[in-house]
Design goal:
Layout: H1 5-15, E1 22-23, H2 31-44, E2 46-50, H3 55-69, E3 72-77, E4 80-84
Amino acid sequence: MSLNPNQKRHLRGLAHALHPLIQIGQRGITDPLLAELGQALDHHELVKVRLAGDRDERQAQTAALIEATGAELVQAIGGIACLFRRNREQPVIDLPR
C-alpha cells in the first residue's frame, strides 16, 4: 500500500505527539528489535523509532527497517523516523482518501 501526500500529512500530524517506542542501540538492528517493531506496528500502526549514528547510518537503518517490516516511511527528521503499517485485521487509524 502506497500512501498519498494527503495521507502522509495526516499521519505526520498524528505522529507529532508520539514518543519513540523503539530505540536502536549499539548492536544495531537485531532480530529481537525487528520482532518488537513488528508487534508495535501491529498494535499501533504508527510508530516512532529513534535511530543511532550519522546521517548515512540512519538512512541505512531506516531502509533496513522498512524492508524487514514492510512498513512505509511517513517522515524522518534527524534521529527519528515515523513508520506506518496498516493492520489488515483490525485497523486502528482511519486514513483520509
